[in-house]
Amino acid sequence: MVVNPATEETIATVSQVGPEAADEAIARSMAALPAWRAVSPGDRARLLRRFAEVVDGANEELARLEVANSGHTISNARWEAGNVRDVLAYYAGAPERLFGRQIPVPGGVDVTFREPIGVVGIIVPWNFPMPIASWGFVPALAAGNTVVLKPADLTPLTAIRLGELALEAGIPEHVFQVLPGRGSVVGWRFVTHPAVGKVCFTGSTEVGQKIMAGCAEQVKRVTLELGGKSANIIFADADLEAAASSAPSGVFDNAGQDCCARSRILVQASAYERFMEHFEPAVKAVRVIDPSDETSEMGPLISAEQRTSVAAFVPEDAPVAFRGSAPEGAGYWYPPTVLAPVPLDSPAVREEIFGPVVAVLRFEDEADAIRIANDTPYGLSGSIWTRDVGRAFRVSRAVETGAISVNSNASVRYWTPFGGFKRSGLGRELGPDALESFTELKNVFIATGS
Ligand code: NDP
Fold first, then answer.
1. Annotated catalytic residue 225
2. Predicted confidence (pLDDT) per residue in 167-216, tens digit
3. Is the dihedral of CA 368, 277, 405, 411 positive or negative?
4. 409-450 per-position pLDDT tens digit
5. Is 260 exposed, middle or buried (0-12, 13-18, 19+ CB in 10 A)?
């Protein structure tokens, strides 16, 4: 049963793929592989471009589906469907540019080829069902692999629709299959089935560790995009008004259910009071309303379970500095919540919250900011606000994180690499390099005689 998290109404029933059906789908994927990898680069590029156009034509339909299934605001959901189109269009350029090398060697000619891996299994979480799916399946298809994709149990609808749109665009049958089902059944089968050559997983660090250990049994290729505890570091020389007005969306976007959420705001002590004066009205102004309303800025959490998990970070005696608002009644609503001052060892500072709760911390100087920012097992994203270019570079290099933005809280651009240091993951998605992680590098030597 698929539930609308803003209303708690059941909106669809999706039948689950079981273990035998998962194996049958993987067998179909294997069978479709030789013909797909043999499609000429120009034709594969054309098919991906057509897929991008079909997704573009369905933007509003996909966005409405995501609002109903995931509680995303309509403006975010349109961006998300647009992101799938853009990722398709970007990697449509790849099949014709999948270059190898010619390496000088004695006695012959040496060339390298980028071969597809085979069947790629993609396991998607519920927080960004469309973009995260596309960051895996698009480069995988572009490199000549076939794909089996498991959406999260809570949010299967847009992935199922994308599977249908692929067929409409002319992607051959069984090249891209969407298999709704339980993670422990379908997802785990991707890990254990010997015909699946690579697993792409996005989700919790805990499950990611299991996936990595499972893949190790077969030395299976794996990409992991896991949790985060990113810092938004605000120096006293920054444009404090800009930093404060941007900080709410940096953590509360998608109701904080974002692995890049800046759930720790680090403010230089000398600017702390001034920052908080600007930050409070910005938090209170966040429009937490029906996500299908054009002006909505934040919707509900995905489930009652997620709301309970988020609320545990704000016990009765929590140091709540101020809060935004949230609707009463049906729906898994939770108001934007700011905690300050918070001890550095409290769960809200140490753990991924995955909800609209942020801890504001003080630091004294650059070294102190870097020390606090790095005092976490995670390293996915982050921001620095300063007018000092030298400091922007120094701190960017010193923070242990896969992606960082200066004077901006944006994390994801499909042109640039995305992924984590430390326990935030393994490998990179998006950008010019991700394609290679869906290929095996083959070296061919041809003796030419002396
Ligand atoms: P999970 O890691 O459990 O789920 C992510 C995906 O993995 C889902 O598709 C899930 O399937 C699947 N899965 C679960 N167990 C297995 C398994 N044993 N083998 C293969 N696949 C599996 O995350 P949750 O949804 O439980 O969320 C828990 C917390 O994880 C969140 O509160 C958040 O902190 C973090 N998280 C981080 C994300 C990120 O973007 N980095 C994304 C989502 C969560 P299904 O749910 O359908 O059973």
1. yes
2. 999 999 999 999 999 999 999 999 999 999 999 999 999 999 999 999 99
3. positive
4. 998 999 999 999 999 999 999 999 999 999 999 999 999 986
5. buried
Which listed residue (225, 297, 352, 429) is catalytic? Answer: 225
CB 169 within 8 A of CB 53: yes
- Assign 245 to helix, strand or coil: helix
Where do runs of H (alpha helix) occur along 228-286?
240-252, 272-284
Ligand 1 centre and the CA of 208: distance in Å? 8
Q: CA-CA distance, 69 to 193, in Å (whole number)?
A: 30
Query: Distance between CA atoms of 338 and 360, rounded to whole angstroms?
Result: 7
Tell me the pairing of strands 425-426 and 221-225. antiparallel
Over residues 348-367, the pLDDT tens digits come to 999 999 999 999 999 999 99
Catalytic residue among 66, 259, 260, 352: 259
Q: What are phi and psi of 106, to 5 degrees?
A: -80, 145
DSSP 306: H
Contact 39, 47 (CB under 8 A): yes
Ligand 1 close to Cβ of residue 332 (< 6 A): no
Nearest to 179 by CA among 69, 28, 25: 25
In degrees and rounded to multiples of 5, residue 440 shows phi and psi of -110, 140
211-259 tens-digit pLDDT: 999 999 999 999 999 999 999 999 999 999 999 999 999 999 999 999 9
Q: Is the CB of 202 under 6 A from ligand 1?
A: yes
> What is the pTM for the complete model shown?
0.97
Ligand 1 atom nearest to 258, measured from its CA: 40
Residues 379 and 259: beta-carbon distance below 8 Å: no
- The number of beta carbons lying within 10 Å of the beta carbon of residue 312 is 13
Q: Are 144 and 58 in contact (CB under 8 A)?
A: no
Q: Is the CB of 259 under 6 A from ligand 1?
A: yes
From the CA of 181, how far away is ligand 1's center (Å)?
13
